[in-house]
Amino acid sequence: MTQAVVLFGSPGSGKGTQASLLKNCLKVPHISTGDMLREHIREGNALGVRVAATMHAGTLVRDEVVDQLVEARLAEADAQAGFILDGYPRTREQAEHLVGWLDSRGIRELVIHLIVDYNVIVTRLAGRRQCPRCGTLYNTLSNPSRVEGVCDLDGQALVVRDDDRESVIRQRLEEYESQSRPLIEFFREKGRHLVEIDASHETPEALLVQVCRTIGSLEAGGPCEPAVSAAE
Ligand code: ADP
Question: Who lines ligand 1 at CB under 6 A?
């Protein structure tokens, strides 16, 4: 059975952090459209050049572009047993595209909506730092690196993502409200499997336990051992 998990939530809801913990536990790839797009920008290829201005402004990249990116990624060998989608779908068109893709393959997904208070989100996004080499996320308030401004894993100087500047944060939250939040209703209307988890206050590790329990309670045997994975 293909294990398809869609992590859904506002920017700053912790989807990326949860996805990277969960991938160790489910042993399926973490597919983040944001990371894939940033990789194209880093490589400076044609797609990267096309999407750079849109991403820096905090608006959404065109549906056809991300739909194709995700479809190509899902066709890769490591995604055949399952995958965790992070940051996709974000619009109704993307959601319809994904649902069509899943249904045509008989794959039943689980959508996990991470619910976080607006004020918590703004604080989190403003404090976010990332390692430009390995992608590890930190937060100056809630999850600082051991040495300020330096990645624990590879010693690189941490950076503020271009789109974590205040004006851009506002734009990203507006995009979420107008384009992405309505998808919760879409998933409900279509009878998709949607679970909502309060993610405002828990540590990422405690949240992982809840996420794994949710997934485990849906599938006999329970797919993961969060205590081990969270410590990795
Ligand atoms: P966050 O969830 O914190 O906003 P992401 O890394 O998921 O961060 O996304 C960063 C940016 O990448 C978005 O603001 C948008 O420009 C682009 N992007 C990522 N995923 C999508 C998507 N599914 N559709 C359109 N644009 C996307």
Answer: 11-12, 33-34, 37, 54-55, 58, 60-61, 66, 87-88, 90, 94, 163, 172
